[in-house]
Amino acid sequence: MRAAARLAAKTFPHPSPLPEGEGTNRSILHDNMIDVLHVPAFHDNYIWLIRAGNRVAVVDPGDAEPVMQALQRHALQPAAVLCTHHHADHVGGAAALASRWGIPVYGPAQEPIPAVDRPVDEGDTVDLPELGLSFSVLFTPGHTRGHIAYYGHGLLFCGDTLFAAGCGRLFEGTAAQLHASLSRLAALPGDTRLYCGHEYTAANLRFAQTVEPDNPDVRARAEHVRQRRAQDLPSLPSTIALELRTNPFLRTASPTVQRAAETHAGTALASQTEIFTSLRRWKDGFQG
Ligand SMILES: [Zn+2]
Fold first, then answer.
1. Is the separation of the CB atoms in 143 and 168 below 8 Å?
2. Is residue 178 part of a domain?
3. I need a labelling partner for 218 at 20 to 30 A (CA). Which of 49, 204, 205, 239 fits?
4. 197 with 84: CB under 8 angstroms?
5. How many angstroms is it from 31 CA to the middle of ligand 1?
């Protein structure tokens, strides 16, 4: 176990961004240690490697090349690819990894992704016997119309639906759909560790501070993330508990968030969905 920890620390600066008491980054399961390693891609994407022993599941490989390099460097062997939605920066490397390694590619049944040969949908389970793990598939539309998330072992891989301190843009779905998807994820256990598709946290927190300037948790998190990013470390994973305290898109029930959204919209907002819709629109035009 110590060797594994060294390996993770050496080339993948292992994320430990959670304030004290928020949990750790590792789980012990079936006498195996599960690690989640990050592979940066493009400008601000993260490709996640769920590792048990020397086997990994690759989540949202927008680019095969950095994944291949990481696998080779650490003598890891992929067992499967998991995709959350069809955008190229999440699936662009899936076909190359599948053909190189002969591994299955799981992805949303309701989106056309040529590389996906194991379409999955709400209620399905992705079994990864090579890792001794299985994940439930959650249907989380809004960012795209068929977006899915993978949940299991206290880990959530949610693509571009829920971001740390923010949420995905509405490309194909409605605000009501995305709000419902986020509410569902928000109901997961508080210590669930959340791995999303992009490093957007600092910018998201600037918006969160604009919505809730007096929220001490948002302020503390912004400082914590600033320090992490100054060292070129990921701001992730987050936890559901931390999101509930700091993510305005999960805080539509807060009177402060409601007031801010109403002030920005210039009108009273009758429901949490309306508050969410107003926040999403506000953030779309926000220059933080
Ligand atoms: Zn996307």
1. yes
2. yes
3. 49
4. yes
5. 35
Q: What is the pLDDT of residue 86?
A: 98
Q: How far is the CA of 5 from the centre of ligand 1 (A)?
A: 31
The alpha carbon of 156 and the centre of ligand 1 are apart by a number of angstroms equal to: 16
Active-site annotation holds for 143 = yes
Q: How many CB atoms lie within 10 A of CB 33?
A: 16
Q: How many domains does the chain have?
A: 1
Residue with tokens 């539309």: 141
| Ligand 1 center–CA 181 separation, angstroms | 15
Between CA 279 and CA 108 the distance in angstroms is 27
β-sheet bridge partners, residue 261: none
- Residue 74 domain-assigned (yes or no): yes
Other residues' Cβ atoms within 10 Å of the Cβ of residue 90: 26
pTM of the model: 0.90
Is 232 annotated in the active site?
no
Of the residues 35, 60, 160, 179, only one is catalytic, namely 160
- Reported as a single tens digit per residue, the pLDDT across 125-148 is 999 999 999 999 999 999 999 999
Parent domain of 46: 22-284
In a domain, 148, yes or no: yes
Whether the bond into 237 is cis, omega within 30 of 0: yes
What CATH code is carried by the domain that includes residue 147? 3.60.15.10
